Amino acid sequence: MSLSSGLKVSDSAYPQVDPEYLTAILLDLLAIPSPTGYTDRVVHRTGAELERLGIPFELTRRGAIRADLKGLRSSPDRAVVAHLDTIGAMVRRIKPNGRLELLPVGTWSSRFAEGARVTLFARDRSFRGSILPLLASGHAYGEAVDRQPTGWEHVELRLDEPVRTGEDVVRLGIGVGDYVALDPGTEVTEAGFVVSRHLDDKAGVAVLLSAAKAVVERKVALPVDCHLVFTISEEVGSGSSHTLHGDVAEMVTVDNAPQADNQNASEFAVTIAMMDSSGPFDYHLTRKLIALCEEHSIPHCRDVFTHYRSDSASAVDAGNDLRTALVCFGVDASHGYERTHRDSLKHLGDLMVLYLLSPPTFMRDAEQLAPLAGFPVQPG
Q1: Catalytic residues
Q2: pTM for the complete prediction?
């Protein structure tokens, strides 16, 4: 079947994202710790960037951002979404020996926490430390180091402070419930790889800001209003459940595509998700995005994710009646030692620009309830 996006624009006519800006804003965002629940500073940085670009925005009470790009008409408007929060940890218990037991913030394995350098945010100041397995020295424990299990009860935080007892830790002002953020360890290689923790989803935020910058600086007229939404609780499942209004007819989430032997994603292309653990994405909106890639020679692939849930799912779960899709940059070792390639980010940014310039998937979606006449029909 031949797909059509409805967009009539040549490759040379549409504004493309600036890869140098994309990398620069990504590095800025990666340097700001933002585990779910500790996102104020990254919200301020993102807000400052939107102000610099001249894009108006508002915040929810807790700090999710909804920015507005005005179009030629107000409805059926659309949203593009990425999340500012990342995985992290929280102090569960102060041990008698001065070490700290942790619990994960978000869903990730302690296997990827072992050896991490971290910052603990206490009441009045921050502290540095490392997450280590309980048996952290081969010289002390021999082969028992290799036999210890994996799990959060088998790791602990060693503070870089002169503490030997739990009382020493408490005197520093550290308590149960304090946040722990992992250092990103960011590196950009000559081959174009970006290696860093928290690419999920700082890279998605950088992609959306880059697409918005390209459109705003070229003063391109958008066909309909578009909302740039930056959520702050995706890693714990709520995400965009509280950032949309009933006027939004379609929503595209930008997030990571895990690369593995049993996946079809690519670190060098756009990955368009057909389904995740919450079910299939909207048939028509997804295929419109595929058509945009085909018409403008954007490298892309399709994939399905069985252990994955995005902001699109939380929006639908919250009762929003809207078409949803998920487009991704490829990531190797997601929620672990992550890596992507600048090509994937650039291609995804260009796709987002094309989507912003495209007409609504269906004009009838401006009405929340409408007659049968004009309702689309899937091929069969």
Answers
A1: 234
A2: 0.95
